[in-house]
Specification:
By secondary structure, the protein is an alpha/beta fold. The chain folds into 3 domains: 3-94, Winged helix-like DNA-binding domain superfamily/Winged helix DNA-binding domain (Arc Repressor Mutant, subunit A); 98-152, no CATH class; 162-256, 3-Layer(aba) Sandwich (Cobalt-precorrin-4 Transmethylase, domain 1). 41% of the residues lie in helices and 23% in strands. It has helices at 3-6, 8-23, 29-36, 40-52, 68-96, 180-187, 198-205, 217-226, 240-249; strands at 56-58, 64-66, 98-102, 111-117, 120-125, 132-138, 145-152, 162-167, 192-196, 231-236, 254-256. A hairpin with a 2-residue loop joins β4 (111-117) and β5. It is elongated. 28% of the residues are buried.
């Protein structure tokens, strides 16, 4: 976030400098206070600081002039605010149009129903009861990405559940302590298989299963579960506390499966 929003002092100095620049060389502190809806005493303290910092020059009475340093301060804060506004505009624009996978050929203006499938948003022509609805804004062929807007209703989505298969650290036996049959059964049919730790990676490779996620697993499984996907994580025991903390913070349900011999 920009400094003018994080710091009241920065934003107040910015506003005072703008007022002084607009009305220099003669402007009363009480007029600035009235415009900013703060006390004249507060303005006086800010002005005193800005004079010491070389942002404002004064004759000690009623004459105030913004210095070159003051102008640079206003320009710097103004540029930062402009960049932040551009960032906000991009966010708002992205929110107004969403992407989905077209289940059939769709044309601009079509009314569609929305649903989640394998964690991906899909759009199908027509309005179906119990589904969220939207309007197509960019035409697309079946299977392609389609732009939708004016979403109404709730997109039905059941949060996924995480299955955790703990594995000892290498000094405690590592993959040698794992039952191949138990591990194979645990990952069978899983939406996503993840590995945290070399021990987990090796244990999966020994049953000819490739973990799809080996890095940033904690963030990935949270996002996946929110999209209705139920991941299986083979996790070295030393990483369990941080994993459970992350799942708890995001209210993601989980269960343990014992895969030891």
């Amino acid at each position: 976030m920009i400094q003018a929003l994080k710091s009241k002092k920065v934003s107040s100095k910015f506003q005072i400098l703008v007022e002084v620049a607009e009305h220099q060389p003669t402007i009363r502190q009480k007029d600035i206070a009235a415009k900013m809806d703060i006390t004249p005493q507060a303005v006086s303290e800010y002005v005193k600081e800005m004079v010491e910092e070389g942002l404002i020059h004064t004759d000690g009475k009623k004459m105030y002039v913004v210095t070159r340093e003051g102008v640079n301060f206003v320009l710097a804060v103004g540029k930062e605010m402009e960049e932040y506004l551009d960032h906000i505009n991009n966010i708002v624009t992205n929110i107004s149009v969403w992407a989905a996978v077209a289940d059939e050929d769709l044309r601009e203006g079509d009314q569609v129903s929305l649903f989640m499938e394998d964690g991906i948003l899909h759009a199908s022509k027509g309005e179906r009861e119990g589904f969220a609805h939207a309007t197509v804004v960019t035409s697309a062929k079946a299977g392609k990405d389609v732009g939708i807007s004016d979403i109404s209703g709730i997109i039905s989505l059941e949060v996924g559940k995480v299955t955790i298969c703990p594995i000892p650290q290498v000094q405690d036996g590592g993959s040698k302590c794992i039952s191949s049959d138990a591990l194979r059964k645990a990952v069978e049919g899983a939406d996503i298989v993840c590995a945290i730790g070399i021990e987990a990676f090796v244990a999966l490779s020994e049953i000819d299963v490739t973990s799809q996620i080996n890095y940033g697993v904690k963030s990935v499984v949270v996002e996946a579960a929110r999209r209705g996907i139920s991941p299986v994580i083979v996790c070295v025991e030393s990483e369990l506390p941080s994993l459970l903390k992350r799942l708890g913070e995001d209210a993601i349900g989980y269960e343990f499966v014992d895969i030891k011999r």
